[in-house]
Amino acid sequence: MTARFFLVKLVRAMLTLLLVVSFVFVILRVSGDPTDILLPDDATADTIEYYRTAWGLDKPLHEQYVRYVWSVLHGDFGISLQDNRDALQVVLERVPATLQLGLAALVFSIMLGIPLGIFAALHRNSMADRLTMSFAVLGYAMPNFFLGILLILLFTMSLQWLPSSGSATLWHMIMPVATLGMAAAGTLARFSRSAMLEVLSQSYMRTAKAKGAPRLRRIGWHAMPNAAIPVVTVLGFKIGGLISGALVTETVFAWPGIGRLLVMAVSNRDLPVVQAVVLLVGFTMVVTNLIVDFLYGWLDPRVRVSGASQGA
User: Fold this and answer.
1) Is the four-CA dihedral 260, 245, 287, 276 of positive or negative sign?
2) Topology of domain 95-256, per CATH?
């Protein structure tokens, strides 16, 4: 039954990817003709028709869609209209830079957000709690582009401590990582605090205290594992969102990842590259959610049992 449950979720994930690709496919083609941007203004009608035929844009929309889905299922994402290279190769060349930024931001958000949330829960209603949650809300609410510009103005323009663009050294990573990870850290802090407060109010925590268990043991062995379940959910969404969320951050700091590539591809109407990026981001979100489902079952057997019964 458990296998059936996860098979159902896998089928739903594939349908989600299909819907994402379909939506982007239609929207990009309705928005305009790529030849209007990629070809010069003085291009002749014969030249325009030649490229429309070469790129398959002369076919009816439904025929373009069927051919594209069939090609994707066979690992063919088309040829970049801008670089005249395989679109998937163009995207994969940028993935290492995005992963480097995203993983660093993830570590930053975990190391900052979860300890702050636990600290706030253990000092509930104190000044430290209010200050910590104010910082968390500020980090969550502040837009990436605004925070990035503030950091550039402070640490690059004013203090001249850090470079504002590029990815050549570790110093180039500090501001993009802080910008991308701050919102996730604020979210993790809020959910960690709420989950920890709920666990601390449970009867088994009072029982452990009555038995004389040390405070660190009660928190480390009883409270934190049970409080981890909602945090894992939020963390799963944040992992998938770090790649898509990097779009703005990479643009602000000229970071050579897929976020910046997507912005350039959209502006140039490089349809194969845009669709490859969107499919990659969607695939990341879907896989992350599936991993979260497995972690649910590992952290709490009740979730595994209820999931199996639903799959049946």
Assistant:
1) negative
2) MetI-like fold (1.10.3720)
